[in-house]
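FAQ

Q: What does a record look like?
A: Structure on top, sequence underneath. For example:
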């Protein structure tokens, strides 16, 4: 066999081997980039600039607000927040655990006044039933004058509440309580008038009935205030790590809870790489906080909108990660790698060439 034939055969063999390697040998293909790790769910209790207290539960998995509520307090009310002394910062709490409670001096004062009013009505009723009425006519007259004076004061306050309600300054509940208080004072005048007439005429039954009606009305107001005070008790809607902040007076975050059972990775990927990604692909995230071992997860969502970052068109990919370390990771910057399966060397070179050309 001459030298040329040998060289030709060697060339054919090398070509076949190269073609086999390029077309049939597979290599793993990955997409890597920087991302941000967040808790899977976060609950926050904040006070906005208007003084309202806002409770918000956010799911970073679906990137949506799951629940939202706002509590308004009357202007002039001295409000404070007391944390549950049994819960320390960064301690684990369970769903339903009490985080703390608000203390409204105005609501407590209302409750005290209503209880005092009920006690006075019961005393009046007892006096009527027992017949213990020394200087009764004079006392009834003074009570009538006092009731009318209180009605005048309450009427001015109610007119003020009507104006604030029309301007959306106070809530429906606060306006309803102002209405109830005004109506109670009107009933107090009717009772005082009946009491005065009874003192003159000696008739008691109608006055006792009026007092019983007034006591029922006061009981309803007391229950309403108690329900509002009960609503001031704050409980955690999820299981996670407790985050305490002392920014209540100046506004901002009061308290929060971050879930620790799982985490969410938000990672921007260049548009050209999106065609190689699918939901369910494995993601590995490395960081020194993970005790040297990368945290794994899977892609759960590929966004449909394109955003420009560092003059590159990108799409955000969301992955759900396991959190075996039970640590709160909010806005932690990490390096993440998405495994896209194995491809041939030819396909790998095509993708690499395309990527270099597009960059």
């Amino acid at each position: 066999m001459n030298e040329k034939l040998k060289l030709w055969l060697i060339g054919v063999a090398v070509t076949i081997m190269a073609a086999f390697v390029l077309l049939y040998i597979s290599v793993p293909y990955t997409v890597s980039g920087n991302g941000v790790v967040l808790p899977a769910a976060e609950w926050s209790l904040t006070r906005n600039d208007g003084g309202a207290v806002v409770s918000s539960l956010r799911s970073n998995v679906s990137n949506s607000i799951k629940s939202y509520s706002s509590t308004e307090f009357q202007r002039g009310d001295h409000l404070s927040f007391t944390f549950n002394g049994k819960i320390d910062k960064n301690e684990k709490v369970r769903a339903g655990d009490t985080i703390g409670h608000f203390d409204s001096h105005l609501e407590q004062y209302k409750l005290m006044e209503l209880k005092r009013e009920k006690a006075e009505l019961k005393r009046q009723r007892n006096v009527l039933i027992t017949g213990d009425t020394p200087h009764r006519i004079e006392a009834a007259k003074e009570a009538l004058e006092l009731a009318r004076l209180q009605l005048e004061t309450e009427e001015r306050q109610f007119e003020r509440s009507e104006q604030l309600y029309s301007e959306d300054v106070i809530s429906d509940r606060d306006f309803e309580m102002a209405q109830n208080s005004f109506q109670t004072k009107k009933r107090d005048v009717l009772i005082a008038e009946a009491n005065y007439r009874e003192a003159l005429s000696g008739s008691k039954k109608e006055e006792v009935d009026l007092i019983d009606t007034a006591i029922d009305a006061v009981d309803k107001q007391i229950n309403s205030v108690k329900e509002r005070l009960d609503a001031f008790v704050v409980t955690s809607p999820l299981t996670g790590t407790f985050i305490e902040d002392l920014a209540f007076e100046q506004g901002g975050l009061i308290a929060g809870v971050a879930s620790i059972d799982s985490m969410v990775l938000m990672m921007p990927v260049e548009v050209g790489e999106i065609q190689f990604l699918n939901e369910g692909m494995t993601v590995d995230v490395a960081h020194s906080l993970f005790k040297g071992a990368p945290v794994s997860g899977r892609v759960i969502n590929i966004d449909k909108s394109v955003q420009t970052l560092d003059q590159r068109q990108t799409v955000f990919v969301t992955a759900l990660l396991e959190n075996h370390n039970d640590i709160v990771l909010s806005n932690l910057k990490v390096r993440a790698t998405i495994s896209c399966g194995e491809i041939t060397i030819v396909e790998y070179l095509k993708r690499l060439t395309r990527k270099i050309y597009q960059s």
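Q: Is there anything notable about this one?
A: The longest helix spans residues 136-166.
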